[in-house]
Amino acid sequence: MTTLPRRADPPGLSLLRVTIAENFHLGPGRADLLEAIARTGSISAAGKAMDMSYKKAWSLVQALNEGFGAPMVETERGGAGQGGAQLTEAGKKVLAHYRAMQDKTRRAIAEDLAAIQADMSIKK
């Protein structure tokens, strides 16, 4: 399996970490993992595609499921060549809302970013 390219954030937004509840956050790593699970149909494959161990990927999925109080990812037990994982409707909605927040943030800061780049003669 090939490694997925890391999501490249355009100038102006390198990290959007949203506090959902006390001690529970949603950021680009967790969002990218949800996206990779949706794309690959597997926690293991998603982890590999992100250069992440299965243990780490599984731990993040558990944290997401527990943090939101409802499953974000459903799994089917299997083993090699069996089973799989998919986002629940709640998981799809959370991912869509997070990506929308990223887009809104990029648009909201675009003018100020351009001004900073111009003031500092930073290459765009």
TrEMBL record:
Pfam families: HTH_1. This is Molybdate transport system regulatory protein. GO terms for molecular function: DNA-binding transcription factor activity. It comes from the Bacteria. The lineage of its organism: Bacteria, Pseudomonadati, Pseudomonadota, Alphaproteobacteria, Hyphomicrobiales. SUPFAM superfamilies: Winged helix' DNA-binding domain (SSF46785). It comes from Devosia enhydra. Residues 33-92 form the HTH lysR-type domain.
